[in-house]
């Protein structure tokens, strides 16, 4: 019998364990690893996220951390997933097509484990600025960036940082992951070394390894254009309301970057649709191990 997340206290401290600082992103500060655990600052949605992680565990999904409880300093304690995550500017190994297709399969397993979870009360992370166009189908991660995927032996084995988990749709989660991993963004914003990456081929590989259905493939290009607009409005609202890292990102031009992405998505809508649906591109083509 598992105790409710909000009644779970973590007191299995090992006083000899070494405290290692973890590389944090733009918003969260003070993340550390202690032994086989990770400590993150608690936030108002922590227990809702913890209940979702409990569900994933109960479904046999092994690609997410377990919520172990709150420690005596009030931090969330999660299991550490062994492996490597990308740096803020992703290293060249992140371009691997073998990694990309393993991520497609991992995300599919997350979707399958999540569809049986329904939490009508699951809180959205932001005020309801720019509401979603479709009713939610599931709770999902919604921040599957290279920095939030744990890689072992060249394969995606885990997802961390469920801070933005929320009620959403299969298409929204897939499109968001594709945006980060293909990546679907303007040429000017590609990471160094990614300039010649075939984003269309990568989108097809991700869709095939995930098993995205044709109807969602058809909808994806237009959906992604709309999602960029919503993302712009949400980031702006967060910068204004929450300040901190959000305001810093906004000041550094994240809003303009999102607008450039939207423009790129508009210009390439037809090419994206062809890449996803063209029958001449054989389904389930193999990732090139040399890419
Ligand atoms: N459970 C975990 N297992 C293994 N590594 C983890 C785990 N949680 C976090 N990490 C590592 O710590 C890094 C930062 O953690 P996390 O992604 O949760 O915070 P963050 O990205 O800094 O948050 P934000 O994006 O809100 O600023 C991750 O990129 C990953 O390398
Ligand atoms: Mg992160």
TrEMBL record:
One GO molecular-function entry: transferase activity
UniProt keyword list: Transferase
Span of domain Aminoglycoside phosphotransferase: 132-190
Superkingdom of this protein's organism: Bacteria
Protein name as catalogued: Aminoglycoside phosphotransferase family protein
UniProt organism field: Arthrobacter terricola
